Amino acid sequence: MDRLIEGYRRFRATTYRSNSQLYDDLATKGQKPSTLIIGCSDARVDPAINFDTAPGEVFMVRNVAAVVPPYTPDGGQHGTSAALEFGVKGLTVPNIAILGHAKCGGIKALVESDPNGPAKTDFIDSWMSVAAPARKVAFARAESEMKEGDLPHVCRLCEMANVRIGLANLRTFPWIAEREAKGEIKLHGLYFDITKGELFKLNELNEFEKVATE
Ligand SMILES: [Zn+2]
After folding, report:
1. What are phi and psi of 143, to 5 degrees?
2. Distance from residue 24's CA to the centre of ligand 1 (Å)
3. Dist CA 180 CA 56 (whole Å)
4. What distance in angstroms lies between residue 95's CA and the mean position of ligand 1's atoms?
5. Ligand 1 centroid to 182 CA: how many Å?
6. What tens digit of pLDDT does each residue of 189-198 get?
């Protein structure tokens, strides 16, 4: 905790001081983020650092494995869906991005799990079951590539499939689908590879394309 407090003091003396007008505006006028990002809780993939964002620029939702559940208004406690509702209806964000990443522990657990076996965790298995279709897609693709036993490769395929399925699930939210149809909101799929510091973006062909660094 001491390191965090020290970091806070540095932030206060530098970033906060040099952006005092911006912080003042954000405090008085409220937030108007340009993008809602759904990312993983993984400590190595911090969207604010990776995208070098300014305060107030991104409305961030982080959960295990950057999973987006389908629209299920059943009275349950849906944290990610609540954040989506607030970001879309309350803040009218013009962009939603799902940020998958390499070496994702949640996806690895899903890939290694037995889909028909009993849950081994209180919450994680149930949460990751939302991404079960991505596991299926990944194994099918690995099989077609004759790389079925290559676990890291299956995980990478699953991490990417999870982003595509998350985008499909976003479109099950009627107020997202309506806004997308009207051109008021754009959905994006992103994938960050920590091993090389590379960012990939889903293109019109639904394939991940490396983003140029210059
Ligand atoms: Zn992760």
Report:
1. -65, -45
2. 34
3. 23
4. 21
5. 32
6. 999 999 999 9
Residue 204 CA to residue 202 CA, distance in Å, equals 7
HSE-CB of 3 using CA atoms within 13 angstroms: 0
As a whole number of angstroms, the distance between CA 158 and CA 163 comes to 9
- Any idea what DSSP says for residue 78? -
Task: Quote the CA–CA distance of 145 and 139 in Å, as a whole number.
Answer: 10
- Which residues in the chain show pLDDT less than 50? none
Instruction: Give 16-42 pLDDT, tens digit per residue.
Output: 999 999 999 999 999 999 999 999 999
Coil/strand/helix, residue 53: coil
**From ligand 1's centre to the CA of 139, what distance in Å?**
19
Phi and psi of 111, rounded to 5°? -60, -40
The span from the CA of 100 to the CA of 191, in Å, is: 5
Pairing of strands 186-193, 198-202: antiparallel
Look at residue 114 in the predicted model and tell me its pLDDT.
86
Say what the pLDDT of residue 146 is: 85
Burial tier of 192 (Cβ tally within 10 Å: 0-12, 13-18, 19+): buried
- The single residue listed with the structure tokens 């490396």 is 210
What is the distance between the terminal CA atoms of the chain, rounded to a whole angstrom? 37
Question: Does the model's pTM come out above 0.90?
Answer: yes
Structure tokens belonging to residue 33 = 């983020």
